[in-house]
């Protein structure tokens, strides 16, 4: 059977009757499902990735992997399931002359939170008004105040450890509720910086080192244990002290949500009025294409900021805005590494526990990006692991007591500050579809166009200067050669490809995530962001998902 202009052979028709079908079981899809199921609406959650998520096996994969990287625990999830991009350009195709887009995501039940770090600061009020304040970027169709309560709900749901006093009213970001948990203890290394640098001025800003709000348990919370401090938060927390979206998948299922894993949505089909009337997905377990009739129902797209626009483009939806796939953003990262005069004793506790947030806003944003600094608690991270230190010394001919001393003296003094810089939304930074290359199930691969611009380069340079001065104040010797400032890493913060706004000429969705052109289609996730700010995106995306769920709940209540 062919549907519309598609030549898809449909083998099956989904028979169950749902109020809402959600595509993507990451945090945004799962939290939306839970909030809808709480009100007894019938929800179907469709997930492309595998449902086989054995945490112990994943942790074991990581422990035994020779090359340790964020994807290594999930190798057993099977080909086709973690078809998240890699850095060798096998999944994303880059336009000629594009710089490399370096961020990744996971296709698996629970999505990318399986390997997120778990830093969850809020956006600042200024992040929503970048154009009004600094004449760059664009303004959101909502303010910080519009989502402040949703932030509180998201923090309760996720389980965020943070210091209310430290963060309340910080840069104008008021908090109407306390964090559900006190902050995670700050690492010993942080105390070296707190003692020597707090209150000092660096490039005209007074430095304040704050405990970063974290999606990890400071105490037992929501049936999960307190953080045990063994430093493998990325790519996996073996004991689930760190939040991941399987928490909300479980809660949604307990409230009646149906979850189907191994189901890759291939296309959404609309009628003449722009309503989404059919979803077609491939059930990998049966290898059959299945159709769901969504007439009169609500569809929520929660497939993250590459797959969401990809599916819209492939389905020919939201075309009037000409914004689908545009404004792709990330937080471009660099780092400064140093050897401290006094030991900082890394590797005890989460990968980072403290940050410097004073550079997240300032007049310079009309010229270059704001940035957040994170103090690392994992030595030099992947730049030089303790194993590399050992190897280098062995190769230099050291052995016995001298070898042991050289390695331990270096490792306990290795310190790192990384900086995540703001990107501006640009229409040329985009996701489009390949005309020639398909993925393994015949959907065009995403083509990325991405530019590392002056706005980012200047921010990286400025942030590096800041780090150098902080290290000087803290008696640390910077290794400029091993630091990274003229190139960048991706932060995994993929944002902006289906932005929200006031009308279909300038945006894809409204401030509630409802698609201007297709009123029964909602989008949740960082793809709806208008600007990137400098805060890690997931808390804001979760808060916006809760806002979207509230709107859908109202709509469904009115219909019943
Ligand atoms: C290494 C790393 C570290 C990070 N650290 C942080 C951090 O410290 N703090 C922070 O805030 N953020 C962090 N992030 C970003 C964070 O992980 C994401 O913002 C967040 O997980 C996005 O959630 P989501 O639900 O929108 O998307 P995802 O979690 O990616 O979920 C989307 C789901 O949709 C499914 N899907 C995709 N296409 C289809 C389809 N066609 N049919 C059906 N299902 C589909 C996918 O399989 C996936 O499960 C990090 C990311 C990485 C990579
Ligand atoms: S430090 Fe260990 S226990 Fe704590 S969140 Fe990270 S991985 Fe989990």
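Sequence proposed for the structure above (560 residues):
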């Amino acid at each position: 059977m062919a549907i519309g202009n598609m030549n898809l052979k449909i083998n099956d028709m989904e028979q169950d009757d749902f109020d809402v079908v959600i595509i993507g079981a990451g945090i945004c899809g799962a939290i939306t499902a839970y909030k809808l199921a709480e009100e007894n609406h019938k929800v179907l959650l469709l997930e492309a990735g595998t449902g086989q998520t054995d945490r112990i096996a994943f942790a074991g994969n990581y422990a035994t992997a020779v090359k340790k990287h964020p994807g290594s625990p999930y190798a057993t999830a099977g080909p086709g399931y973690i078809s998240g991009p890699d850095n060798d350009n096998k999944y994303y195709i880059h336009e000629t002359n594009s710089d490399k887009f370096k961020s990744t995501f996971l296709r698996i039940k629970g999505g990318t939170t399986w390997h997120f770090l778990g830093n969850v600061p809020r956006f600042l009020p200024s992040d929503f008004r970048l154009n009004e304040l600094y004449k760059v970027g664009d303004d959101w169709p909502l303010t910080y105040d519009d989502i402040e309560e949703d932030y509180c709900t998201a923090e309760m749901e996720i389980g965020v450890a943070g210091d209310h006093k430290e963060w309340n009213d910080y840069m104008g970001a008021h908090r109407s509720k306390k964090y559900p948990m006190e902050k995670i203890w700050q690492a010993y290394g942080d105390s070296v910086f707190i003692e020597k640098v707090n209150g000092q001025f660096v490039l005209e800003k007074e430095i304040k080192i704050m405990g970063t709000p974290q999606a990890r348990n400071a105490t037992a919370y929501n049936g999960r244990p307190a953080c045990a401090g063994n430093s493998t938060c990325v790519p996996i927390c073996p004991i689930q002290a760190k939040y991941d979206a399987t928490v909300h998948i479980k809660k949604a299922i307990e409230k009646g949500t149906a979850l189907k894993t191994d189901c890759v949505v291939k296309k959404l089909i609309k009628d003449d009025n722009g309503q989404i009337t059919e979803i077609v997905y491939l059930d990998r377990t049966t290898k059959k294409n299945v159709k769901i009739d969504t007439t009169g129902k609500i569809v929520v797209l929660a497939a993250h900021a590459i797959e969401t626009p990809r599916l819209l483009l492939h389905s020919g939806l939201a075309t009037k805005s000409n914004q689908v796939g545009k404004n792709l953003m990330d937080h471009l990262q660099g780092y400064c590494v140093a050897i401290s005069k006094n030991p900082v004793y890394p590797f005890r506790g989460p990968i980072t526990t403290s940050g410097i947030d004073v550079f997240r806003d300032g007049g310079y944003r009309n010229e270059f990006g704001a940035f957040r600094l994170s103090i690392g608690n994992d030595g030099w991270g992947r730049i030089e692991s303790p194993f590399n230190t050992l190897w280098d010394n062995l190769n230099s001919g050291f052995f016995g007591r001298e070898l042991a001393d050289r390695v331990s003296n270096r490792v306990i003094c290795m310190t790192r500050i990384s900086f995540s810089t703001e990107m501006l939304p640009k229409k040329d930074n985009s996701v489009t579809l390949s005309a020639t290359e398909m993925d393994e199930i015949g959907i065009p691969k995403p083509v990325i166009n991405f530019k590392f611009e002056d706005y980012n380069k200047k921010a990286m340079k400025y942030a590096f200067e800041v780090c150098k001065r902080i290290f000087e104040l803290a008696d640390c010797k910077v290794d400029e050669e091993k630091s990274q400032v003229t190139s960048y890493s991706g932060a995994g913060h993929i944002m902006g490809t289906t932005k929200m706004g006031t009308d279909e000429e300038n945006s894809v969705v409204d401030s509630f995530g409802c698609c201007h052109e297709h009123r029964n289609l909602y989008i949740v996730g960082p793809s709806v962001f208008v600007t990137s700010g400098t805060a890690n995106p997931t808390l804001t995306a979760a808060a916006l998902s809760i806002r979207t769920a509230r709107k859908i709940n109202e709509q469904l209540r009115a219909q019943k």
